[in-house]
Specification:
The structure is a single chain. The chain is of the alpha/beta class. The protein has a domain at 84-106 and 224-424: Rossmann fold (3-Layer(aba) Sandwich), CATH 3.40.50.1100. Helices cover 43% and strands 16% of the residues. It contains 19 helices and 16 strands. Strands 4-5-15-10-11-14 form a six-stranded mixed beta sheet, sandwiched between helices. Strand 4 and strand 5 (98-102) form a beta hairpin. Helix 10 packs across helix 11 (258-268), helix 13 packs across helix 15 and helix 16 (365-379) crosses helix 17. The structure holds pyridoxal-5'-phosphate and ligand LJ64HWYM. Residues 140-145, 220-221, 255-256, 258, 307, 314 line the site of the ligand N[C@@H](CCOP(=O)(O)O)C(=O)O. Residues 110, 143, 221, 253-260, 307-308, 386, 410-411 line the site of pyridoxal-5'-phosphate (PLP). GO terms for molecular function: pyridoxal phosphate binding; threonine synthase activity. It catalyses: O-phospho-L-homoserine + H2O = L-threonine + phosphate. The modification N6-(pyridoxal phosphate)lysine is found at residue 112.
Length: 466
């Protein structure tokens, strides 16, 4: 399998090189040249497999001969061995039609662990075959940061620089990053929003002054390997609910469009998915784009679901590429227009292609709080604000009552204790696996929302590429 850029002019790479490269050199995102397909019989044969085996089976076609099946299975077994639930991503039934897919049983309590625990091992594996040092530069609205830091802290040949918007992540999220004191971990609080941080990260990949000296790598979902690992839990959930004989719908709390794009890929691979519901908070660029075709950026509004306070959704580009006929040069032109005007209109092909599988919904603060309360009172489940936005969308999307709807529970409620307590009167306690988070020393630097300041800081602290 080789990987091509959504903007049509970067060289094609194999899986190992695409994983280390992160973003393509033309500013595009890597996607597999074709979607691997499973037949109905092949999907039926996956029923009952333990998670690590299922993960190996689903990911092998993407990995190609960069890892043998035996080696990939060793890595998935190691990655998912750190999860606190044997099922890794268990399903919980809420009522006759609705389920939660709990994705927060990893070390840092959010769905990001599912991909990043594996990605840390993939970096180690592929860097071990070269003399390269990797300088990871990432942006986080709260959850990617801690999951990535946990995955690479203390690993040889990797430095990580993680940018978060100062004051816009929860105290638990911040401490999960800043209390990791390994020498290869650098936390940077910047003035501005997640979008500002993400823009600086992307700019660094195309800054020759940086890329000449450092091998810049990505842990955000711009890195294809992140999405690949997230495809697996769509299969895991659907297989438990009757796939391939029965269709399932998924409601996905969405910000950077990575998680829900993984669901789209699962559908391309043959998993029978009825609908993918894109659930946003009031930062609703995706809801507007999918419902009206207008993808225009507005100012980010801070909410009680801060990890979704995003107005430029990196992975939407992957969808536009795929449903728009895979014309990289045309998409590059369209994206250049967006980058200069902060607005773009989807083409008819892009709108129709997206509408075939995606529905969208937006939840405001009241609707989010009501969903947290409903889950608590009616089902006894304490859910986090991001999951609540997904649940609100699941309950209002008008899916045929005969079709099971799975809401992705993307974070543990204890990461957002204030909002959850306000909605339910219950203050969720931190699971034992995060330990004495509030007694640990914090280490971070604060920088202005200025690219030059961040690039200088990285250049001063990173190891040269060889
Ligand atoms: C808890 C939580 N839910 C949902 C999302 C949205 O996921 P995505 O960015 O993949 O759309 C994020 C962050 O991205 C998150 O941290
Ligand atoms: N919500 C994310 C934002 C970054 O998204 P990613 O999936 O592209 O890494 C976060 O918590 O940091």
């Amino acid at each position: 399998m080789d990987y091509i850029s959504t903007r049509g002019s970067a060289p094609a790479l194999d899986f190992a090189d695409a994983t280390l490269a992160g973003l393509a050199s033309d500013g595009g995102l890597y996607v597999p040249r074709t979607w691997p397909k499973f037949s109905e019989a092949e999907i039926a044969a996956m029923v009952g497999l333990p998670y690590a085996q299922l993960a190996q089976r689903i990911m092998q076609p993407f990995v190609g001969d960069c890892l043998t099946p035996e080696r990939l299975l060793e890595l998935t077994t190691q990655a998912y061995g750190r999860f606190a639930h044997q099922a890794v991503t268990p399903l919980v039934q809420l009522d006759q039609q609705h389920w939660l897919l709990e994705l927060f049983h990893g070390p840092t309590l959010a769905f990001k662990d599912v991909a990043l625990q594996l990605l840390g091992l993939l970096f180690e594996e592929f860097l071990g075959r070269s003399d390269r040092n990797l300088t990871i530069v990432g942006a986080t609205s709260g959850d990617t940061g801690s999951a990535a830091i946990d995955a690479v802290a203390g690993r040889a040949k990797v430095d990580i620089f993680m940018l978060h918007p100062r004051g816009r992540v929860s105290d638990v999220q911040r401490r999960q990053m800043t209390t990791v004191l390994a020498p290869n971990v650098h936390n940077i609080a910047i003035e501005g929003s997640f979008d500002d941080a993400q823009a600086m990260v992307k700019r660094m990949f195309n800054d020759a002054a940086m890329t000449d000296r450092f091998a810049i790598g990505a842990v955000n979902s711009i890195n294809w390997a992140r999405l690949m690992a997230q495809i697996v839990y769509y299969f895991a959930a659907a297989l438990q609910l009757g796939a391939p004989a029965r269709k399932v719908a998924f409601s996905v709390p969405t910000g950077n469009f990575g998680d829900v794009f993984a669901g789209y890929v699962a559908a391309q691979m043959g998993l029978p998915i009825e609908r993918l519901i894109v659930a946003t908070n009031v930062n609703d660029i995706l809801h507007r784009a999918l419902s009206t075709g207008d993808y225009s950026q507005s100012t980010v509004t801070p909410t009680a679901a801060p990890s979704m306070d995003i107005q430029v959704s990196s992975n939407f580009e992957r969808l536009l590429f795929d449903v728009g006929g895979r014309d990289g040069l045309a998409l590059a032109e369209q994206m250049r227009g967006f980058e200069s005007t902060r607005a773009m209109q989807l083409t008819n092909a892009q709108r129709e292609g997206a509408a075939a599988l995606f529905t969208s919904a937006r939840a405001d603060a009241d609707e989010m709080m009501k969903a947290i309360r409903w889950a608590h009172v009616e089902t006894g489940q304490v859910i986090d604000p991001h999951t609540a936005i997904g649940l609100h969308a699941a309950q209002t999307a008008g899916i045929d009552p005969a079709v099971p709807v799975v809401t992705l529970a993307t974070a543990h409620a204890a990461k957002f204790r204030d909002a959850v307590e306000q909605a339910t009167g219950v203050r969720p306690s931190l699971p034992l696996r995060v330990g004495d988070l509030f007694d640990r020393e914090e280490r971070l630097v604060q920088l202005p929302g200025d690219y030059a300041a961040v690039a200088d800081y990285v250049a001063e602290h990173a190891s040269p590429k060889v």
